[in-house]
Structures are given as C-alpha cells and as structure tokens.
Amino acid sequence: MANSVPSRTRSSAPPKAPSGRPNQLFRNLHSKIALTPMILVASVIFFGGTIWTVIYSFTSSRLLPRANFVGLTQYDRLWASSRWWISIENLLVYGILSLIFSLVIGFVLAALMDQKIRFESAFRTIFLYPFALSFIVTGLVWQWILNPEFGVQGIVRSLGWTSFTFDPLYNPDIVIYGILIAGLWQGTGLVMCLMLAGLRGIDEDIWKAARVDGIPMWRTYLFVVIPMMRPVFITTLVLIGSGIVKLYDLVVAQTSGGPGNASEVPAKYVYDYMFQAQNLGQGFAASTMMLLTVAIIIIPWAYLEFGGKKRG
Amino acid sequence: MRFRAFAAVMAATVALPCIAQAADLEVTHWWTSGGEAAAVKELATAFDATGNKWIDGAIAGSGSTARPIMISRITGGDPMGATQFNHGRQAEELVQEGLMRDLTEVAEKGKWKDVIKPSSLLDSCTFEGKIYCAPVNIHSWQWLWLSNAAFEKAGVPVPKDWNEFVAAGPKLREAGIQPLAVGGSAFQVNGLFDTLVISLGGTDLYNKVYKDKDEETAAGPEIAKIFAAADDARKLAKGSNVQDWNQATNLVITGKAGGQIMGDWAQGEFQQAGQTAGKEYSCLPGLGLNQTLTTGGDAIYFPLLDDEEKSKAQEVLAETIVDPKVQVAFNLKKGSVPIRGDVDLAAANDCMKKGIEIISKGSTAISTDQLVSADTQKQKEDLMAEFFANESMTPEQAQERFASIIGSAD
User: Fold this and answer.
1) A202 within 8 A of A114, measured Cβ to Cβ
2) Does A273 touch chain B (CB under 8 A)?
C-alpha cells in the first residue's frame, strides 16, 4: 500500500502538469494582457531606473553617464559636504514638524467640523482650497506674504508697531519655518478632509455608548475614535511622508535655497548637482541616500503592517 | 553608445517633419535682461538679413537655470539649431561625446585664428585640434559700479578704489543707503569673491589658485586677506534683499545702493536706464586696483544636426557672429567687449573704452569658468552663498573649506 501511493501520484502528476500550468498562465488572460504595459513600465522604468541610478552612483560620471567606477568616492564627498548636512537637517526639522502639525491641525479642524456646524461645506471648501494650488504658486504667495517690505511685517509696522520684525525668509536661522508655514497652509486641508471622512465612518452608536458611560468628549476622541481610525491615519501618514521627502518646488519658489544655503533640501541637492554642477555621480549618490532613508523607514513598517496581517 | 543610438533615433523623429521648411534656426540663450535682449535683437536681425530665420529660444532665469534645459535637449535628442554657453568647459563633455558640430572649415575661411583676441577664447572652443564654437563676446567680472548720486547724498566723494569704497561704507549706512548691492543667487557672491582674488590679490595669486589649483596657496595668508575683504563685503552687503543681479544693479541705478561688484554686463542695464558713465554712475575696472580683466563671456555652440539646410544655416550664423559689423552692434548693446581686436568701437562709452584698453594691452587672465569645472564652480558657489548669508561663519572656517575645494578641483 505504502509503495503504491507514491507511484500513483508520480504517474498521475506528469499528465496533470502540462494541462495545469497553461491554465495558470492563461487564466484571466485579458486582464493580464491589459496589465502587461503597466508591469513593464513599473519594472523597467521604476525598478530598472532605480538600479541604474544606484550603480552609476559609484562612478565618476560628470555631464553624461560613464561607467568609470570609483567606489565610494561620491559618498565620501557627499557626507563631507556641509550643504548636504544642512539639507538633511532641514528635511528633519521640516519633516517632523510638518508631520506633527498637519496631523494635529488636520484632526482638530476635522473634529470641529464634525460638531454639526452650520455652513460646513463652505468651511470645508475654504480649508481644502489651498490644496488645489501647486507648490510653486503656494511658494510665491507666501514669499510675498512673508516679504518684510510688503507682507506681514510691513502691514504691522504701518499700523504703528515700528519695531515689529517678522522676516523668516531672510533670516537663515528660521527660514525653514517660513517654508513650513507655507507647506502646512497647503497641506492641512487635505489631511482635514481625510480625517473628516474617517470621523464620519465612526458608528453613531459608539458615541452614544460613550455618552451613556459618561466619558468626556476629548477622552472619547483620544482613546476610542482615534484608535478606530487607524487605517485613515496610515493613509494620511503615507501621503504626508511622501510629500516631505520630495519637498523641492516649495523651496525653489520661496527661497531657492537661500539665504545662502540655509533652506536647502536633499531633493534640491540632487537636482543642482546633476544639472547645474554637471556631476551626475554626485547627484546619483545623493538620490541613492534619499532612497536608502526612505527604505529604512518603509521596510520595517511594511513588514510589521503587512507581514503581521498574513500571519493573523 | 546605446545612448547615442537612442539619441539619433529621437533626433530623426523630430527632424523628419521639418525637412520641408526653409532654414529656420532655433537659438537658445539666457540673454533676457533689458540690455541683453536688445543685443540679441541685433544678432537676430543680422542673421535674418542672410535669408534665414532666427527663432528665438530665450530661457528666463540665469545661466544655471537655462543650461540644464539646453543640455537635456541636446542629450535627449531634440537639439536646437544653436545655443549659448559661457566660454569654458560647460559644453566640454557634449563635444567629447560628438554631439556638437565641427566648425573648423568656417573658422579657417574666416581666419578666426588671426582675428580672435585673446586667443584663449578660441582655445576654449578647440577640442583635439577642431573648433566647436563661435565666440560672441568678452565679459569680465572685475568691475565695481558706483552710483554717483548715492555718494553725493552721503556726503563722501565717489571712491577711486575698493579700499575707499569700504571706508565709505558707514557713511552710506548713515544716509540710509545700502552700501553694497548683492543679489541672492549664488553665482553673484561666487563671482564677487573671484573678483576680490584677482583685483586685490593680484594676477599671480589668481593663477596659482585657479589655474594651478594649489591647495597650499589657497590655505595661505594671501587668500586669508581675500577672505577678510570678503568679510567686509559681507558686512556691506547686509540688508540687500534682492534675488537677481539686475535687481541689484537697479538699486545702484536708482541710487538706493552705493555700489555693486558685477561683470560688465551690468553696463547694459545702466544704458537701458538712459544713464551715462561718469555722470550718473562710475565704473572701476579691477575695483580700481589691479588693472587686469578676466576674459570670460559667451560663445555659441552648434549641435550636430541631420538636416542639411539647417547645417548650412548654422555655418551662416557662425559667420554672422564673428562678422565685424555684427560684433560692434551686438557688443555696444550688451556692454561687452568684441572678440576681435580689429573693429572700430568709437561709439563705445567711457567704461567700455576702459575695458577695451585693458584687454588690448594684454593684461588679461583666463576666466574661472574656463579654468575649473562646473562641479568645482558649484562647490565654490555653495561655500560662498553660505559664507555671505551666515554671519556666524568666520573667514577662517570659510578659507579652510575653500582650500579643500581647490585641493580637489579639476
């Protein structure tokens, strides 16, 4: 008996395989054909492009890519460059603050909006409106508002407070906060909308139950509603996070990295070195470091998030 | 190689639909300020007179905005008919890669070797014995532009050199005048520093640092003096909240600022504003000290095209650029010096005449764009931008970094 069972599986397996495999391959053939271009684009352009960039970051390519490998020279230079350090520092300050503030402001606005107020849709439109503007327009608008001669400082001074000083864009120590203000103005509306959608998704009965138990409203929000909104928070986090890493056009429009290079960001370093300095190798090294940073944050998170789900 | 094949295919797809057209030539450049645009018009008119058509491809912003666009068009297989670059090494790799057109025949016909002065201009166009660009003009950085009205208001005589200018700084501040106008973009402070090196430190020092790339000199006491002077300039420049160089020039034109260190292209702005040298404004070549000018400037490069008619038009344009009459018309408007010594510039104003005299005497140096790579220039720009904006950075710290940039320069 024991002998015949394996032999039977062995004899039945070969005829099954040829008929089984094509089945797998040709199942949903139409959708697979339709997906092919996307898969090709994703693998060749995104994945291939990434690999190519990483490889060429080890070369001494200048204006044109050349496979002249020089080891880690570009990375040594990158980490010795004070501009790169300033860029990283700025991105950290901007990133952390913009993450905290857009979540907090977005959530508070959404919670206020959720109190069945009048003209809710009008307020929603007003808060979301800045998001319809590009970063370039946002940057230019805030460049004017923060300009010491025409903007806030000028207006307050003309009202009589002549010693009032508010010129973040011309002060190297606080310039990144000037950019942060513009970034928040543009981005919080979207966060608010996402949060509002999340709040609306919370069952009315939960609120009733909390009220019956006599839990104050702020505690209900903090300990019941927010944990229930986890998926919304994750979506928001991804959106804000990607916005932070690619921060470039806002800086270009508002300060073009100045004063001096006090408001430089990594993405701008990449562009400037690739195209202005005609040093592709250096730009590739910087962009590889950006990729690495994102990977260090994303991979453990994705592992926890999706790996955990599969197990459970 | 694959890259070039791809570029060629792309070029073919773009070039094919244009075959029927006569020779329209698109010329890209970043000559967009008032004086510059007037000069380009002269060039365009002269080219149109040959029966071809000049399609203007002006790119706003400074060269650092325009060059990436031009380069990606050429490498991406959508070359224009002709394009501006500065004298020097900005197009070096494009030439090496065979993307640029060989102009040797045109140059030999026009005897460029004999007429173009100084010869370093043509050397910059030459690669492996062949000529790849047509020089347009000579620009020098070493000029201090002064507003006579501003000094009158402050009650001090118009300075004769940089030292007097620095001494007059506090008086200007008292009178509510910005002593030195410097725009925010990095190329301006970088050029200012190089000007201090050659005008205050002398031509030998300049050559040692930028030509020989001697790290020891760059770390030495002579450059330390230059950084001290740059520290003066930093203090004088504090408070000029403008971005572009021509906005800074405008502060001088309107008497809101005492002076500006800027190349002779600033002169076109004074001219556009209807001011005359000596009356409303003064100019000090070499900052009134070392009377040596660097001979940078612009050249037109011609990408390799498949279209025969356009290639012919490229030759015509190259001839037009070097033509004596066009040289005069263009450079008068632009405020730059012609690339040939045999033209008559009686119409030139006082400042230009001073410049021409210095250059014809031969006291010239090669510009930093020709001596160092774009990469080194960018690193210098980063350093200078930081130094000028960040007052807590001492001249000593800046010099240390400057020396290491020069040490690794190419």
Assistant:
1) no
2) yes
Q: Give the domain range for residue A262.
A: 74-311
Across the interface, of A83, A256, A275, the residue whose CB is closest to B68 is A275
Q: Number of folded domains in chain A?
A: 2
Instruction: Write down the pTM of the prediction.
Output: 0.81
A48 and A88 within one domain: no
Compute how many other C-beta atoms are within 10 angstroms of the C-beta atom of residue A200. 11
CB contact under 8 A, A262 and B382: no
* All domains in chain B, ordered by first residue: 2-138+297-340 (3.40.190.10), 143-294+366-407 (3.40.190.10)
Tell whether B72 lies on the interface with A, counting CB pairs under 8 A.
yes
pLDDT in tens, A49-71: 999 999 999 998 888 888 889 98
Contacts with A273 from chain B: Cβ below 8 Å: 375, 378
pLDDT of residue A308: 58
Give the number of beta-carbon pairs within 8 Å between A and B.
79
For residue A66, being part of any structural domain is answered with: no
User: Where would I find the H helices in B238-323?
Assistant: 245-253, 266-272, 308-322
- For residue B16, CA distances in Å to A207, B83, B98, B99, B303 come to 69, 21, 21, 18, 17
Q: Does A149 reach chain B within 8 Å, measured CB to CB? A: yes
Contact A260 B94 (CB under 8 A): no
Pairing of strands B24-29, B133-135: unpaired
- Half-sphere exposure (CA, 13 Å, Cβ side) for A68? 10
pLDDT at A7: 45
